[in-house]
Structure formats: C-alpha cells, structure tokens
Amino acid sequence: MIAYSKKIPFPLLIALLYVVSGCQKEFGNDNYTAYFGGEVINPKDNFVLFLKDDEVVDTIFLDKNNRFIKKFDSLAPGMYTFKYEPEYQYVYFDKNDSLMVRINPVEFDESIVYCGRGDEKNNFLMELYLKNEDDKNKMFDVFDFGVEKFISNCDSSYESKKKFYNSKKSKIKWSDDFDLYAKTMLNLHHFSKKEIYPMAHKMRTGENVNNQLPSNYYDHRKDVDFNNKLLVNYSPFVRYLTHFLGNVSFSQINSVNVEEEDLEQHIHKLNIADTLFKNEKIKNKILDNIAFSYLLEDQNIINNQTFLKRYNELSTDKSKQNEINKIGNSIQNLKLGNELPDVALIDLNGNKISSQSILNRKTVIFFWTENADSHLTAVHRKALDFHKKNPDYQFVAINIDEDQTKWKKVLENHRFGIINEFRAADFEELKDKWVITKLHRSIILDETGKIHNGFVNLFDVKFNDQLK
C-alpha cells in the first residue's frame, strides 16, 4: 500500500497511483485492490462519501490539505458513486483501477476530471453527461417545434453524441460491463426526449400531437430492458422510466376535469409500474418518483389521500413510504388560503430579509439557477410577458445558487428590468418549507399575500388563467 503522506504533492500522488496500477497489471494481480482519492477545492465539508447502490461503502475524510485517499483491499468491479453533499457523480471501477478526482463544489460537475488507471472511460462518461446536460438546458424551445422539426433536431443531437460514443469506445476499448452504462446514458437521454415531447408540447402550446407522430416513433421502447437490476440506481435509466410512464398515462387519460385528470393519470402510472416492473427495487424506485411528482402538483386533500392509499398498497419500501407520507402532510401547509411559510432571502445589496416582508400582495414567485441558462432566459421572458398582461402582480424571481457575486453578474448581463430579484439565503430551508424540488415550480399569492396556487408551472399554456 502507498504510504500516503500529507506532504506528497497532488500531481506526484497521481503518478504514484499510475505506478501502482501499472505494477498490478504487469504482475497479473489476482486480487481486487483498488484506490480512490482526490482533492477538494474550497471544501465546505471534511469528507467524501463513497457509495454502491445508494449504500455508503466508506466515508473518506479530507486531510489538512483538502486531499483524500482510500485503499480498498477488495472492490468488486462495477458502477459506484461518490457524494460531496449535496452533489454526487458516478465512477466506474474495473479490477485494480486506481482513480483520483479533483472536485470543486462551486462548479461540481464541470470541475470533475479523473486521473489514474481507469481514467479514460470515466472522463468519457463525464463528457457525455455534460453534453446531455447542455442538451437538456436547450430543450425548452425545442419542445415547441412541430413534429417533423422536433424529430429532426432530436435525431441530429443524438447522432452527434453517438459518433462521440463510437469514437471513444473504439479508442478506449472498454469492457462490456462498462458499455452497459455508457450506452444507457447515450440512448436513454435520447429516448427520454422523445417521451417528454408530446406532453411538453401540449403543455406549452396547447396542441396534442399524438396523432401526428409517425408509426415508428416509439420503436425505441423495444430496446429498453425495463427490469435490468444493474441499472436500478442509475439515474439515466430511472429518469427514462419515469418519463415513459408519464407519457403512456398521458396518452390514455379520459377525464375532462383537471384535478380528476391529474389523479387519474398518476394512479394509472402506479398501476402500469406495478404490472411492468418485476424487479422489486426498480418498481419501488419508480413508485417513489411517481409519488414525488404527484404530491408536488396536486393540492386536493381528498385526491392526495386517494393517491397515497394506492401508493402505499403497491410500495414495499417502508422507509420511502414514511418519507413520502411526511411530504404529503407537509404539502398541506401550502394549500389554498394558507400563508406561505417565512424563509430568509438575500437582496442585491447582500441584506438578509424576511420573505413575508415582500410577499404581502398579488405575487408570482418563480425559481432559477445559472446552471440552467436556457431556462433562466425562458422563465424570465415568460414572467415579463405575463407582467404586461397582469401589471397588478409583482413577479419575484428567486435564485437557488450560493454565490452572491456570480448571481449579480448574471443579472447585470441580462437586465430583466421590472422583475424583483432575490436569492435564497438557505436553499435547504426553502426546499423544506416551500417543498421546492424542481426548477419549473411557481407559486401564486393573492392580494393579501396568501396562497392562491402553490403548485403551478409558468410554462403551462393556461397559466394566465390562474391570475384572473
């Protein structure tokens, strides 16, 4: 084992890992020794969590130079995650890999670069992930396209990334086991866009395009193994399954009442999941996602009870059941006519203020982050359009990032004018009290500052009706 000295420079430490991993390869080592380490720039916590299948394998503490390293005497090949709260990312280990990673919490995903044995395939995975994230940030306008233009745009984006994937696969010659994750990240991002499109297009434009889709539009579903237990905790897989269920139920609902339609759609999702997924872990994961989604969209107390009754009948994960039922109870605090719980906000001068001091009149609240640039622009543009039609409302934008200087710089570059801009002083407080778990959420307050609609989307084609 390397005698890890706190005086060893980071580049030298990487070189030593190369030597160790190279020796292991040369002498045909039959054990499963592996190393994982790195450096955290400007750390907020003094440890990194190393996980397998959402279970903590080890807590690796930083030294006084913000570096960490861990030798695993026996580490089974496969996909792992490391977490530096609240962010996480994937890392794949083949036998005897030795990997170092540099982490910057401020720009977490963009900062990650791997060095050591096994670095090429992991750096490829990060590159592909960032390409997908960039693609997601550009989706908002793409979903407004007509069918032919959307398919052309979607396929063009996919072919570009597929070319990148094929090139790296040929060069690196990674294993079939790793290829499962690489191909899943490539394909299921593409498949997810195709599942989202009919729903997003209807919500944003009011047009139902289901009858306009070509007969082979959903052929990709034949290529998805819905019960692959190796992918149960892999986010591209779980995300696709969630979008797939949403689209299937969306195309089959019959109710004309909005609240009944939403309840019917989500219970239909639960029933499809119960039938489709044979793997218990996958089924529970998807049931949980459906429950989170529903509870953040519906405020009807009777409907919530009906939905949770069916969810609890199907889920076998008692821990998640308790968490979701707790959220269901918390959401009742945000029902029609209630006061919005007070949270701390930061103004442009850096002063901390109470949300209640500014949210005491007709208000639309929406959220944004500099990490989703396309959404940042689109949501402010929507708010400005709605303000012209509804000048009696104030529009309040709340940024969920932590850097005051970068937040102000973004606003200076865009100049959104009449919109009142604030930043969350503590995102965890905001998330817990206002149940903010997705960026598209908006909140409408009435003339007394009480909740008119706590769960609404600014991009909904019928949003303006909520303001009348």
Automatic annotation (TrEMBL):
Gene3D superfamilies: Glutaredoxin
Database matches in PROSITE patterns: PROKAR_LIPOPROTEIN
Domain Thioredoxin-like fold: 361-451
Record-linked Pfam families: Thioredoxin_8
Name under which the protein is recorded: Thioredoxin-like fold domain-containing protein
InterPro entries: Thioredoxin-like_fold, Thioredoxin-like_sf
SUPFAM superfamilies (UniProt xref): Thioredoxin-like
Domain of life: Bacteria
